[in-house]
Each structure stands twice: as C-alpha cells, then as structure tokens.
Please model this.
Amino acid sequence: MSDTERQIILSKLNQIVDPRSGRGLVDAGLVQGLVASRGRAGFMLEVAPADVPLYEAVRGEAESMLAALPGVERAQVVLTASAEPSLAPGNIRVRKGATLSPQAVSQNAPSRPTGAMKPAHVRHVLAVASGKGGVGKSAVSVNLACALARLGLKVGLLDADVYGPSIPRMLGLTDEPVVGAGGKLQPISVFGIKAMSIGLMVDEAAPMIWRGPMASSALNQMLNDVAWGSEAEPLDVLVIDMPPGTGDIQLTLAQKVAVSGAVVVSTPQAVALIDVRRGISMFEKTHVPILGVVENMAYFTDPSTGAAIEIFGRGGARETAETLGAPFLGEVPIDIALRQACDDGKPFVIDQADSPAGRAFMDIAVAVAAGLEAGADERPAPTMRIVD
Ligand code: ADP
Model:
C-alpha cells in the first residue's frame, strides 16, 4: 500500500465517529495494524471489554467502508477487547491497551478462573502444545485431528500458531474463509475435518499485529466467531494447534477457555524435554488436564536392514512423562513419507494409516478420545463471547 493509499483509507476511516469520544476513529487511536494488499483490507479495532457491544456497529460500518474501496475484494475489521492492565516495572506499552510482557502475565495469572468457557456447540477443546518449535506439533495436530475423524468423531482444527501457521500448507488450504449466513466465519471442510487458520485470516506480510497480547484477542475471535459447530451438528473435538512455548496465547486458552485436555509433543532429546516440563507445569498450574505426551521423531527405520536408528535418542519423552506423572501416549517414528505428506498438503493418516507412523497416530487418537471421554463435561456449551 502506498503512502497516498494509506492516507486515503485513514481519512475515510476517520469519517466514522467513535461513539465514546465523538472523534474520528483514527484520531481516537482506534485503528490498529491497518493492512491493505492483494485485494484485502482490514485493521484491528481495539476497545475496552465493556464496550464490545457498543462497537459492533462501528466494526460493521468500517468493514462496509473498506469493502467499498476500489480494488478491495475482502474487508475485515477485527474487534478485539483488551483490558488496560497497570504497567508492571519493566513492561513496555506498545499500543493502546496492550503491553509486551508475557512473562509478567504468566506470573500474575497462574490459575484458571471459574468462568472458563467453551466455544458454542463444541464438546471438547483439545490443545496440542510443545515447549519448543520444530518438534512436529503441527504434524501431530493435523494427523491427530484426521485420526479422530476416522474414529467417527466430528472434528475441528484451529491453527493458533500465530508465529508460524503451517496448517494451510499441511492441509493444502488456499481459499480464504467466508462469512456465512449467521455472520460467522465458515471453517473450511477438508479431509473430513473443519479447519481454520490464523494464517488464512492475516496477510503474511503483516503478522506482527497478531503477536503477543493482540494475538490472544485474535484467538478469542477464532474460537468464538467461527461456526465450528451448530445445534444440529456439534463438534466432538476442536483440536487447537498452539504456538510453541508458554506465552500469552497458551495462557489465554488455559485461563479463559474450558480446555478439556492438552497433548504435549516432544522429540526425545534433552533440549526439547526441558521445555516439555515447562509446558506441562503451565497446564498444571492452570488446571488443564494433561492427556499425555507424544514422542515424535522417536526413531528412523533403516530401509535396507529394518533396524531402528535412534537419531535423537529414544524414550526421553516417555521418561519425562513418567517422572512428571503424565500419561505417555505413544511414539511416532521419523518417516520421509510423513514429511512429504505435510509438504503436499495431504494428511499422512488419510492414505497411510497402516504404516508404523500411521498406526501410532491412530493409537494416540484412541487414547486421546478415551481421555476426553473420561473427563467429559456435559454441561451445555455457552454462547457468550469471550473477551480479554
Ligand atoms: P512444529 O509445529 O513443532 O514447529 P512441524 O509439525 O511444522 O513442527 O514439523 C516440522 C517439520 O518436521 C515439518 O517439515 C514436518 O513435515 C516434519 N516432521 C514432523 N514430524 C515428522 C516425522 N515424524 N517424520 C518426518 N518428518 C516429520
């Protein structure tokens, strides 16, 4: 977007009146992270939690205004609610209503408030987490979701990895999500599951606006403004591919969403396992049940001899799970076909459920489904909107 185009958009947006201050939206500081490229235009409208209903109309007006601009095929204004936390020493205020200090948030808010909720028409929310990037968390999320669907469950997959969303690639998704009749975003139906990725909603050139505390708000919207299930067809499980680590997104989830259980993925070597301990401990502190630990890339089978080569060591995740009192769900071998399937956009378990890695995913899915049922919470899912 050129400077001139940007100025034109901003001046148009400033003609919309902020109902609180009576000033233009831009002058009131409400337009955050403006993006306009490749036929898409959008920004974040960040307001106080109590003001969310008041600003729904403003969001609609701003979206219509953007949609009417020449060359704009899709406009999206994301309404986010962010509390105004008092600044702790060392925190940096980066924009109105947001501070950069996930650590401070984690120290201040270790427990799950009693008001934690589920998205509407979703029976179970399952978090797939890892302490570290690159251990195969997304590969496990995709294959676990499809394996659960093969077991006959209605499954959704939400890619919340704001730092590197890979689900669109792994499922071959290219279409942008559309808004359905009920005003909610429609998840994309593919390989027997419903999928939605933060990567489909944001221009890759502008990922920064979703990071940190803002990302928590975006996640709330992904959970609540997407038509995951309906009265007639509720989802059994919504699998969430979390970003690696123990930052804001994980905390938002653990504290505000009634996560039924978490699966932690690790490779066998020590460096990944230290992070697993942190991940498990975060879920424990926030009272999210750990359904178990998956050891990914546990071994590689030498094609000429059939011998198992333990490239990253083997058994470390099992030992850590045992030490920490968490169930061990199984080990997934390194399989070139699995890597290839991820790159080709077709989940491995669709065609290769009978291979050792495929069987591992199916067994893990059975254990996860049992773990979810064991802790099943049959209270009706509320339809309230969750805000920061
Ligand atoms: P993460 O989500 O933890 O960052 P990914 O799921 O994106 O990790 O996996 C990282 C890379 O490793 C991807 O290219 C993926 O295809 C590959 N991969 C993951 N698990 C396996 C496995 N068991 N065998 C072979 N390749 C794997």
